[in-house]
Design goal:
The chain has 4 helices and 4 strands, in the order H-E-E-E-H-H-H-E. By secondary structure, it is an alpha+beta fold. It has one domain: Alpha-Beta Complex (Sufe protein. Chain: A).
Length: about 140
């Protein structure tokens, strides 16, 4: 278990905890893991189809926070379609033994051995795949 919580994972978790709140998000999504109680809420600012800001609220373990931290580092300057592709790539990497989407994702390799923890890593990606426009939905 110790190999899972190595420095790179903890650094990604810290970056998610330090994400700055967005006053006027254009999109948001939320996902719960009923098995362990983890919850991730993501808010985005999308301007001219490009993600310009992201904020996470994570109530969960370090792996859940680290998944959000990785996603936060990857999405700025990308489109919603890119975000969905990243979710698919991470799922393929962790669940289907496909190549890692990038070198930053390799730190999650030890998690592949503990299937019930993969859900924790992917929770922020799942929340992002359920984005809705903030202006059309009361929160």
């Amino acid at each position: 278990m110790q190999e899972i919580y190595q420095g790179q994972i903890l650094d990604l978790a810290k970056s998610a905890r330090q994400s700055k709140s967005i006053s006027k998000p254009t999109h948001w999504g939320e996902k719960n893991n009923p098995v362990c109680g983890d919850k991730v809420t993501i808010s985005l600012v999308v301007d001219k189809a490009i993600i310009s800001d992201v904020h996470f609220v994570v109530r969960g373990c370090a792996l859940c926070e680290a998944g959000a931290g990785l996603l936060g580092k990857k999405v700025i300057g990308k489109t919603i379609d890119d975000l969905n592709r990243l979710k698919d790539d991470m799922s393929d990497y962790l669940l289907r033994n496909q190549p890692a989407p990038d070198s930053a994702s390799l730190c999650f390799a030890p998690v592949k051995k503990i299937k019930n923890r993969i859900t924790c890593v992917l929770l922020a990606f799942e929340a992002a795949s359920q984005l809705i426009t903030a202006e059309n939905t009361p929160r």
